[in-house]
Amino acid sequence: MKVLKTKILECANIRENQIVKVDSFLNHQVDVNLLNKVGEEFSKRFSDVRIDRILTAEVSGIAIAAIVSQYFNVPMVFARKTESVNLSEDVYSTEIYSYTGKRNYKIKVGKNFLNKNENILIIDDFMANGKAAEGLIDLVDQAEANLMGIGVVIEKGFQEGGANLRSRGIRLESLAIIDSIDNNEIIFRD
Amino acid sequence: MKVLKTKILECANIRENQIVKVDSFLNHQVDVNLLNKVGEEFSKRFSDVRIDRILTAEVSGIAIAAIVSQYFNVPMVFARKTESVNLSEDVYSTEIYSYTGKRNYKIKVGKNFLNKNENILIIDDFMANGKAAEGLIDLVDQAEANLMGIGVVIEKGFQEGGANLRSRGIRLESLAIIDSIDNNEIIFRD
Fold this sequence. Notes:
By secondary structure, chain A is an alpha/beta fold. Chain A has helices at residues 2-11, 32-45, 61-72, 131-142, 161-167; strands at 13-15, 19-21, 29-30, 53-57, 76-79, 91-98, 103-110, 119-127, 146-156, 172-182, 185-188.
């Protein structure tokens, strides 16, 4: 997706040849015009399947999934990490290992918001090692819903998450795949 | 806002005559069609002022602020609670007391995303004791930006947050104000 790649090249900060900071438009400040183009692109890429619900996880997926769900005209649900009085006890729950936090944490979705046989599209900001996506897939499996695919805005192609999911036959659409970062320069996959 | 009040009466679960659970449409699963009406309503109510940026806080404000910001055509920034590699060290930071978590926690915004003399609109899901809003106002003050107002979807009128803010001359627009809950029945303010 050209407009996204241009934005990444213009605005992303690279740290330690590995961390791609996109806090100016994706996961702290949010460029809603760009997200609308992201939503339009996902709706094109998944136009061959029926989607009943969009699933994401706290925190950085929420703004993206909210805007994207407008293009599918379906509700969005975000798996909660934080304990909340707004979450009932009747949940699907799974553990995710966080490399940045160096610990496991739980994510949960109320059982009434993921239904058997529904078609689910997972949306997230990044695909790196794929642990968050695997947690979300586990929630979809627990609900006996159908995973129709995963859409991420930026895939770090030099980490194993995307390749692992594709090798399992899971449909993964990444709008920008970073193949490598050399001397703080981003090289996209064609 | 009639459509919102109807939705609350239809879908909210009341617990202990105090907690209004709206996880089916506002802060766990998200009804994006309703949020678009919310965005339209806020844009009408604040149509007399120029807004440069929308500010909210993790977690439940994000989806709402993202959709609402489309109607103002401005970027949205969410103050982060969770530690993130995506947040630089150069931040405005403040502490908020959480009644539900029974502890203080910090919220932070990158200094480059709140600028001096900018016009800021704060958006959030709930107004109860007002602690989250006060934290966000503190961030706006630290940045020497202009607080143009606060828009919340649901105000618990029986808690002190809204009254306190209005008595300080802060413009607060609440789309539904719950005056009381009796025998699990919601009474709205006219």
